[in-house]
Amino acid sequence: MARIKACFADDGRILSMPxxxxxxxxxxxxxxxxxxxxxxIQGQIDIGLNTAGESQARALRSALAEHAFAAVYSSDLMRxxxxxxxxxxxxxxxxxxxxxxxxxxxxxxxxxxxxxxxVQQPHAxxxxxxxxxDYDYETGESLIAFAARIMGELGALAARHAGQSVLAFTHxxxxxxxxRAATGRALDVPRDFQLPNAxxxxxxxxxxGWRLISWADCRHLQRALxxxxx
Length: 230
What we know:
By secondary structure, this protein is α/β, with parallel strands linked by helices. The protein has helices at residues 34-37, 51-65, 78-88, 114-120, 122-130, 143-160, 172-183, and strands at 23-29, 71-74, 95-97, 165-170, 200-206, 209-217. The chain has one domain: Phosphoglycerate mutase-like (Rossmann fold, 3-Layer(aba) Sandwich).
């Protein structure tokens, strides 16, 4: 089972940082898009929120108002950026752009549904469903490279905000990687956890590594779609 040597220790934990202070993260997947409802792979194609996604972002306000954050970051892709700005209005914090928190680039599969990919790109789809760690979709990003990008960025944010709480708006693939880092799951193991739109996911980073606090909290939402199962 593949692990990312640059970010994962032999026991599956993220390599710890020198700071003795923990950093708490609330990570949020963007609100719903039309491509989510169509189960179409978005990757780094810049798709905006649909009406349901806008409503989900507004519903996040009350959930986030109960907490104090030192900083807010967001992927620069429209669906995350718009969610961040709607959800944080009234918090008194500026949203900082974090392009490194973009979704994985799915290369030749971007813009396709599973059915379409089975006809147009069957080889790529087989690797996608198998979660082949070093496969890059011909023109995209391998799972190993993607996870290294994400965990490197979150590690930098944890060091920058030691002892503080950070709010970040991002994507399903990003949350998949982070959950695995916190629970010791290998990258190529089939997913058995949820990644709903606009849910709150809480984790903590300390000298001991990453710890899961709570996951997929949807209490503020009437409905939320899960990420496409791989």
